[in-house]
Amino acid sequence: MRKMLKDKAGVSPIIAIILMVAITVVLAATIYVWVSGMGGGGGTKINLNLRQIDRDTDSVTYRVDSVSGGPGWEDVKIQIGSSVLWDGSTDSSSGGITVDGSTIASGEITAGQTLVINDTNADVGNTVSIIDKDSGTTIWSAEIHY
Length: 146
Known about the structure:
Blueprint: H1 13-36, E1 47-56, E2 59-68, E3 76-80, E4 83-86, E5 96-99, E6 102-103, E7 114-118, E8 127-132, E9 138-143
Antiparallel strand pairs: 1-2, 2-7, 3-4, 3-8, 5-6, 5-7, 8-9
């Protein structure tokens, strides 16, 4: 038979189990953060859907159908083509932009609001875009139609 080595020092089985559990927990937490995207870089994603409800000479009217992410008008830019009409604080359109009949200003974007863009570029075929100021990504875009 084999002789047992009595003078060999080793890690206690209890310590070994504690170390294995700790490593497993750290590994599981790392995988969870990686898979769920919580590893940084995220902000609140703004989703916005508008529908054109009217068009007139140098004017186009939209209704906000749905919105999520809690944006305010100060959080977005409004463009026709590459021309910035609203930068979040200043109306640069040729005829003014209104929200529910009042001059555009800061305030929450809510479903049901009416956005009227009065500008000489509000022609059929031009594209209106609403852009998230923070990320620079286009939230909503549509071509002006009859």
